[in-house]
Amino acid sequence: MTACASPSPTTGHGNEAGQGHDDSEEGAPGDGKQKRSASPPGCVITADGSYGARLALAGDDSWFPERWTLDGPEPYAVPLPANQPEEPGTEVLPLTDGRVLIHRLAAERHLFSLLYPTGPGTGELLLGAVECGDPTTELRLLPPSPCGEWAYALAVGRSSTTVWLVAGGAFGPERVAEVPGRCSGGVWLDGTGRLLALDRESDGRTKTVVVDLEQGDVSPFLQIADDSNDRLLLADPDSGLLLISSDAPSPGHDRLGWGVLGSTLPVRFPECLRVPDDHRMTPFAIQPGQILTPESCAVALRVDGVRGSWVGLWRPASRQVHHLPAPEGWLTGAGLWTRDGVLQLPYATKMVRCGVARFGVPWGDEPDICEPPPQGGSAHEGAVGVAPACEGAPPGVRGATDTPGTPGASGGVGAPGASGVGALGEPAAPGESGGAVEPIGAVGAASPSALSPTPEPEDVAAGGLAVAARPVPLQQAPLEGRVSEEVTVG
Q1: pLDDT band at residue 346, thresholds of 50, 70 and 90?
Q2: β-strands 241-246, 62-69: how paired?
């Protein structure tokens, strides 16, 4: 692969705004033995939550980039169309200075540009291209870096994977590291954007490795058992909380588990995070700012089933998952937590072009009785009484209560038992039930643009780079024992 830089700017013109999309498919580790893949999020959000970017639709088939400003009192969208519509699979990624990186594919050339508003039109700064000589090489953008000023891409070849710096370099795209084997995933382990975790497939097994992007070094990071497939799904540098997918506790079936960065404690696989074979549960956001308290970090889960997608809320200290219906027009898989524990989900509808629904969870005061949602109203404004064995999850799913007389209603699977039914059908302890999720409201707007840089995060607490670089000590774990409520491996 080769790279070439093209710094000349161009200018485009605006057109009408449209809706987001979630059409492309990308394989990702899941929970259960099903192989159905979850599509990428409908919106990409910077690590600090200041900006978002998505590919929006104008008319029937005209796609264009759109930037969302999320750190003000009201969110607003700015269209960034070029001279011609974009292809549906075009990738976009926001930077914290307000510009949006766009990745286009032309033949075997991957083109990168920075888009920004220029009055009525769109300014475009061409960054260069990466040429893949092998047509089987796949190149995609990695999640936004913690610093928010750089952007990276992952080129997966036949026998090796290359990490490219595609925005923020001095001379166009730069090759920064090469990893033997085919890699997937991509999780940042520190607050500076130096340590990147990748899931590497080798000899028929998948293990997580960590890449030091400054030195180019590759080190083992996660291995629960020699013959297990172990992947890192999400990490929070503040608390050290890790969300993991592994088939170690149930060979042939991926399970969701959690661990702590640099800790000698074993990985735990809670029963409440198990889902039926035709469902999928994927974490997409962890509450930041919980220094050294991973058990109290709230985690947002995207739950995909035969009846659509919805949101699950969980934290390691809880034995249950709170289920709530996604807001209408949710840009599926996108969202972030505030430090105060408020979940923000971006959405777009015909009436609201740019909106954010906000939810709070009273973790410390979980009632014994499930509170059903009020009648009428949408998920944006009405109370969402959601809990295991209560309304909130789609009918027919274990853990959701079917309403008599509605399609999919049944008196068996969805009905709570004498001791209650946990999330997605797992038994709950007597007297336990889910708490209600408190809706805070939703805001939406469409306004002109304003570029406002945001300070980058502080350095990683409790361990820093040295701790993140060493493997999590979870090897050779006995798998025979089962513990009530969760499986502990290590």
Answers
A1: very high
A2: unpaired
Q: Are 203 and 278 in contact (CB under 8 A)?
A: no
Q: Please report the sign of the dihedral spanned by the C-alpha atoms of residue 211, residue 217, residue 221, residue 226.
A: positive
pLDDT digits (tens, 9 = 90+) for 87-129: 988 999 999 999 999 999 987 899 999 999 998 889 999 999 9
- Alpha carbon distances (Å) from 241 to 56, 343, 346: 33, 17, 24
Residue 168 contacts residue 149 (beta carbons within 8 Å): yes
Tokens of 100: 């949006």
d(CA 56, CA 64) in angstroms, rounded, equals: 5
Q: Is 122 left (phi over 0), alpha (psi -120 to 50) or beta?
A: beta
Instruction: Residue 3: name the closest of 104, 131, 176, 114 by CA.
Output: 131
CA separation for the pair 418, 4 (Å, rounded): 66
Assess contact for 161 and 33: CB atoms under 8 A: no
Q: Global pTM?
A: 0.73
Report the distance separating Cα 259 and Cα 243, nearest Å.
7
User: Hey, what amino acid is at 87?
Assistant: E
Nearest to 356 by CA among 106, 66, 52, 9: 52
**Phi, psi of 189, rounded to the nearest 5 degrees:** -105, -10
